Amino acid sequence: MSEKFPMTPSGLASMKALLHKLKNFERPRNSRAIEIARGHGDLKENADYSAAKEEQGMIEAKIRELEVKTSLAQVIDPTELSGTRVSFGATVTIADTDSGEQSTYVIVGEHEADIKRGRLSIGAPIARAMIAKDIGDTFVLANPKGKREYEVIKVDWIAVPPLEELP
Question: Is residue 18 part of a domain?
């Protein structure tokens, strides 16, 4: 059985946009660079050719990776979910039980994660600690400063904006 890749609708859209860019712009640009470098003579000592071929390999690997992930995407739309229990797609507000300091995160697919924008990968330790918790539940998270206890304050089910639309 193949592994599914959970993602939000905006995450799938951004992944498809990147795939389109790689196939329709980066791949042809790279092919032109290879052809130009070939024209410079001896391929064994041609740094431009070597660099372009290396880039070609990276582009093709990324295309294959994105094709697999989009074909195995398990799209979960947070706006179609409800409840007070934390799961994929939830926008969760937690509070440090000692300091009272609050933080809000949305739990997204691994390729959508951006901690600076409050987007946690479903596989991140803090996201795993929150999953299946309900409003009012607490959980403990070990970090470099020691163990901290957090309480789930709020769970919202809102659309996740695409990464490129975030400030």
Answer: yes
pLDDT one-digit tens code per residue, 106-134 = 999 998 999 999 999 999 999 999 999 99
Query: What backbone torsions phi and psi does residue 131 show, to the nearest 5 degrees?
Result: -55, 135
> Do 131 and 144 fall within a single domain?
yes
Sign of the CA dihedral running 18, 20, 23, 28? negative
Prediction pTM value: 0.80
CB atoms inside a 10 Å sphere around CB 8: 25
**Separation of alpha carbons 84 and 92, rounded Å:** 10
**Cα-Cα-Cα-Cα dihedral of 85, 90, 91, 92, to 10°?**
30
Q: How many domains does the chain have?
A: 2
